[in-house]
Amino acid sequence: MNLITLENFLDNSSFLILLLTMLIYWSSAAFPGISILPTLGTAGVAIANLAIATLLGSRWLEGGYFPLSNLYESLFFLAWGITTVHLIAEKMSRSVLVGVVTTPVAMGITAFAALSLPADMQTSAPLVPALKSNWLMMHVSVMMLSYATLMVGSVLAIAFLIVTRGQNVELRGSSVGTGGYRSKLERLELSQTNNNNNVPVMAMVDHNGNGGTAVLERINPQTTVTDFPNLSPQRLNLADTLDNISYRIIGLGFPLLTIGIIAGAVWANEAWGSYWSWDPKETWALITWLVFASYLHARITRGWQGRKPAILAAAGFVVVWVCYLGVNLLGKGLHSYGWFF
């Protein structure tokens, strides 16, 4: 089996595996009683991740350069990044809903790359002179990892909006600015506590079985409907988890985006004699940075929780796609090498 045949097998296999894995996650969400489905879903994502990594490694051997020179390679690198971040987010949250929302994104990317792109765009070709630089790996790989991380964080925020039905659910303790990260022993849960007035409270629950539930805040009966909409405790707890994991993942992706932009500016100065040229790709990278900087600023210093930052993160999902792909569809610039750049 030559490298081209191997690559065709791997790209189609990764698409098929992600398609089946997506269906497994959706089935797991619909039938939570089947305990083996989440394990199968995680295994499917891990296998797809390995298949994509093997594909990229094969392209590296074939072309002799880091496989990020055209749209086909960058799409699969993006899918690899999303599946990698998925495994991290799922381990943090232990919720199948992570797979429910991330696997369709990864599957769609691999389907577009393997089934929609013409053959000439899938073929490995020699690098143009401007891309023959060590900065190709240092800048582009970090940018692609930041896109993948921010996309996962954003789709988790979208999932939060779906779980809460877009209602203004006020959460406590999910961000650094309003309580810090929760320890492994304790986490905040919204629950209904039986008391004389049947008033909902927010409680701190020890998951190690040590007992002792401390009421942190008692909600005024007159504002119960406004502050805590008619959502089940399980749904509220899931929303709390999604909000927290989304924030952490975006908090990981933002520094990567910052490093990638700085590395790109240094490379631009080396290649074109200018750190910043207001190229369309540079402009949208700055817009993306500002959107997620606003998200983190709102959470850390303004104490935003729940719906408002989730809407901002959902908007960031669109902005990332415009920065990554839309700019190349709408016009050309200094980053138009290989149609991807």
What can you tell me about this protein's structure?
It is a single chain. The longest helix has 40 residues, at 233-272. The chain folds into 2 domains: 3-168 and 245-330, no CATH class; 176-234, no CATH class. Strands 1-2-3 form a 3-stranded antiparallel β-sheet. 39% of the residues are buried. The model is unreliable at 176-228 and 337-341 (pLDDT under 50). It has helices at residues 3-30, 36-63, 71-93, 97-116, 119-122, 135-163, 224-227, 233-272, 280-300, 307-330, and strands at residues 186-191, 201-206, 214-218. Helix content is 65%, strand content 5%. The chain contains 10 helices and 3 strands. The chain is flat and about 60 Å long. It is mainly α and 341 residues long.
List keywords for this structure.
3 strands; mainly alpha; 2 domains; 341 residues; three-stranded antiparallel β-sheet
Outline:
By secondary structure, the protein is mainly alpha-helical.
Average pLDDT? 77
- Care to count the β-strands? 3
By DSSP (H or I, 4+ residues per run), the number of helices equals 10
* Widest sheet: strand ordering: 1-2-3
Structural class: mainly alpha
Beta percentage is: under 5%
- General form: flat
Number of domains: 2
Low-confidence stretches: 176-228, 337-341
Which helices and strands occur, and which strands form pairs?
Elements lengths: L2 H28 L5 H28 L7 H23 L3 H20 L2 H4 L12 H29 L22 E6 L9 E6 L7 E5 L5 H4 L5 H40 L7 H21 L6 H24 L11
Antiparallel strand pairs: 1-2, 2-3
